[in-house]
Amino acid sequence: MNTDKFTNVLTPAEVLVAEGFWKNKMELARTKVIPYEWEALNDRIEGATSSHSIMNFIIAGELTEKRKTGNAVSTSDKDFQGMVFQDSDTAKWLEAAANILMWHKDNELEALIDQVIDIICAAQQPDGYLNTYYIINGLDKRFTNLRDNHELYCLGHMLEAAVAYYQATKKRKLLDAMIHYVELVDRLFGPEPEKAKGYPGHEVIEMALIKLYRITKDERHVKLAKYFIDQRGQSPNYFEEEAVTYGNGTLWNDTYFKMGYFQAHKPVREQDTAIGHAVRAMYLYCGMADVAKETKDESLLLACQNIWNNITEKQMYITGSVGSSSTGESFSFDYDLPNQTAYAETCAAIGLVFFAQRMLLMEPDSRYADIMEKTLFNGIISGISLDGTRFFYLNPLESVPESCEKDEKCQRTDATRQKWFGVACCPPNIARLLSSVGSYIYTVKEQAVYQHLFIGSTIQHMINGEAVRIETSTNYPWDGKVKIKIVTKNPVEFQYAVRIPGWCKNYKLSLNKETVKQPVIEKGYACISRTWQDDNIIELDFSMPVVIMKSNSNVRENTGKCAVMRGPLVYCLEEEDNGGNLHCITMDINGTYQSVWEPRTLDGVTAVYSKGRKTISNRNELYMEADAEKTETIALKWIPYYAWANRSVGEMAVWIRT
Ligand SMILES: [Zn+2]
User: Fold this and answer.
1) Which among 270, 509, 541, 624 is placed 20 to 30 Å from 255, CA to CA?
2) Ligand 1 centroid vs 375 CA: distance in angstroms?
3) Is 404 a catalytic residue?
4) Where in the chain is the domain with CATH 2.60.40.1180?
5) Which tens digit of pLDDT belongs to each residue from 26-52?
6) For residue 154, how far is its CA from the centre of ligand 1 (angstroms)?
7) Which of these, 183, 205, 180, 45, lies nearest to 123 by C-alpha position?
8) From ligand 1's centre to the CA of 329, what distance in Å?
9) At what angle do helices 298-314 and 366-375 cross, to 10 degrees?
10) CATH node for 441-542
């Protein structure tokens, strides 16, 4: 594997997103999401589910102080509240806020983050331990239930926050505190005989340790990540032994998952199918890819490729969402992709984007970038309202509000986005994704630049020893025109590789106004190798017609149905535009589909108009002879899926009968 020439991910600081669709989302994160979520973490949103996450840190800090000094605790609130992983909500918010500081100077926000870091670090134990659930409820039980109690998960998220804040400000307080905690974990877990053979029940620390390693270059950090990856699923199974030793019960053992729920049913190199809790799974695969890259581990890369193929060829929604089953928030089985009961957690889709980015760092292949783009535009941003203050945890592809209320199978899905959740992993996760979206546009190696996404942005990067500036301007995804300006002072030779999207059948490519008739295409990228000097303009014009999509025939749910896409966007019908009973509608796959830019619809979208037919239900019988059914022609209006549920409460459907 020749991965050593690749740089690491560009940080949000290195890519200045300047304009367009994603700049608007980043500004939404900065001006709406971050302030709103701060209020939520402090329980100041009226009518929202309580978080208590910040208060848990305050209480833990006071208890820590009391244990050191004997002074009384002043906080009247003395209980840990929320889930065992409540700390991670604050951690993800911190990471998102730190990302914002990388592209927008904000002294007030920085001062607030410093305050939060002081609160967090006050709770740290002398040996480095830092988890409010156990600090408040009893340290004697710490590390006795790695399977269920998320200590290493919370550490992983706080570590990612610490790395981001260090990258944003070079301030080390949180980073040093987390390194101290990692040293404790490193003393307790590992291959050496005196150490326990544990690993996290909920992955994330693996990729966090690699982020840390890329800053510290401390081999212990990559070794610990590799240990957690290698040890998972080995026999004897740590979780089974731990359950007996500490009386943790047999969670999931009476289901078909068993240890597969935790991806711990066999060693990771033997896994080729995505299984179990989808967010855990995605974070594991990210950690595997990170370790594969850093240790040049071919067998681990192969496992990543196999799992990637399984997910994207057999277990992924057209929106890029993954994890179709509400039982265990999990992957279920190949081609099982129900629409109305889709679990499709926002965090799992975010995990797929992380995974795609990591695969791109090892292999520039547009199949990864195609999925990354699809998931960003559809399955992720469907999880947040256009005003940035309401959230979906689940992202179904069909919704009937009455079912959400009364049908047990649908009761975990919401017909409207929520203010907050008891399990609030998704809202701060989407905040950290939106605030760092610039870092997904490029990967750069010694003599090549790969552009994966089309986002109005500028990077300045040393390539082959020369400073090169690359500016992209585009109105993507609303049209397919992309202009890329490459500026260097001195001549420099490198390859510019720009992704030709998988959805695009016709495009024009020109360099300095001259059409490139037969561009060299390598793994989905048009590659221009030359000596660059002064100003150069690459222009792309991707033809972006409306395309009617169908599923593989193995997807039972979508038999006889089609969906509408335009460019990277998946479309849906909503009751607001098309009346109720969307199941009575049939679309005409040979009809005319007209796209219209509507600046005042849903903050500005290209809507699609077509004709369809709708069954007229004017009979009282429940059953009747088939030829009794009558239909009428109706006008259909399609909107981008991500924007559904931003107007009235009503039905929505992506897959429509043909
Ligand atoms: Zn989530």
Assistant:
1) 270
2) 15
3) no
4) 441-542
5) 999 999 999 999 999 999 999 999 999
6) 14
7) 180
8) 10
9) 50
10) 2.60.40.1180
